[in-house]
């Protein structure tokens, strides 16, 4: 989700929250000195899709009060839901990136199937560790141990928890890289 789409969706959520709050406090025409607490309760589950990790109500109250104070002081004429959305995202800090896989390509110079994969890596601008099996004997050993053969190219995909997947076949590797890291995947 791009930043602007997130801001837009969050702004919609704040607008909806404001309307629900007004509805709940019709008697006082929306006046409620404890509004940040009411908002935090209302938002608790609804905010989950925007967050990398659960947020405590007290942290939400803190961010809401900050957003309100700044809106009044800096730009009271700006539409408040969008202002809150931007301020709120700043207050939460950047969403945690999911842990990335480590990619290593077993290859050797002069192998045409390897060139096909190397070109895709270059085009996609990927950070892939290159393991030349004829330059480093350990790489050849690792490959043989894992696959019982030494045909290359082979992409080794190691997840954050250390689990390995060995992917042979240049066409499959290119397809995988494009699908996982190409523009369409962004
Ligand atoms: N179909 C495979 C062919 C791979 C292939 O033939 N690799 C050659 C080098 S270009 C190789 O490793 N040959 C030695 C071997 O199989 O042990 C692919 O597209 O990746």
Helix content percent band: 40-55%
What's the story with the biggest beta sheet? 4 strands, mixed
Low-confidence stretches: none
- Biggest sheet strand line-up: 2-1-3-4
Radius of gyration: 25 Å
Heterogens = glutathione
Strand segment tally: 4
Helix and strand run: HHHHEHEHEEH
Distance between the termini: 9 Å
Protein topology:
Layout: H1 3-24, H2 35-46, H3 57-74, H4 80-92, E1 102-107, H5 112-124, E2 129-132, H6 137-147, E3 154-158, E4 164-168, H7 170-181
Parallel strand pairs: 1-2
Antiparallel strand pairs: 1-3, 3-4
Helix pairs in contact: 1-2, 1-4, 2-3, 3-4, 5-7
Bound molecules: glutathione.
Task: Describe the structure in your own words.
The chain is α+β, with helices and mostly antiparallel strands. 54% of the residues lie in helices and 11% in strands. The chain has seven helices and four strands. Strands 2-1-3-4 form a four-stranded mixed sheet, with helices on both faces. β3 (154-158) and β4 (164-168) form a beta hairpin. The radius of gyration is 25 Å and the shape is elongated. The mean pLDDT is 88. Bound molecules: glutathione (GSH). Glutathione (GSH) binds next to α5 and α7.
Summarize the structure.
The protein is built from seven helices and four strands.
């Amino acid at each position: 989700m791009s930043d602007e789409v997130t801001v837009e969706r969050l702004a919609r959520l704040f607008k909806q929250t404001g309307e629900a709050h007004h509805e709940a406090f019709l008697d006082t025409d929306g006046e409620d000195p404890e509004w940040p607490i009411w908002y935090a309760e209302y938002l608790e589950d609804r905010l989950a899709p925007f967050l990398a990790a659960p947020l405590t109500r007290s942290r939400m109250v803190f961010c809401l009060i900050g957003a309100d104070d700044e809106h009044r002081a800096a730009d009271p004429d700006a539409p408040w839901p969008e202002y809150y959305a931007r301020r709120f995202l700043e207050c939460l800090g950047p969403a945690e990136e999911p842990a990335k896989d480590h990619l290593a390509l077993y290859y050797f110079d002069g192998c045409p199937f390897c060139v096909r994969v190397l070109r895709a890596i270059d085009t996609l601008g990927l950070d892939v560790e290159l393991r030349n099996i004829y330059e480093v004997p350990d790489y050849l050993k690792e490959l043989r141990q894992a696959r019982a053969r030494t045909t290359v190219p082979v992409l080794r995909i190691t997840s954050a928890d250390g689990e390995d997947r060995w992917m042979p076949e240049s066409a499959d590797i290119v397809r995988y890289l494009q699908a996982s890291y190409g523009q369409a995947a962004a």
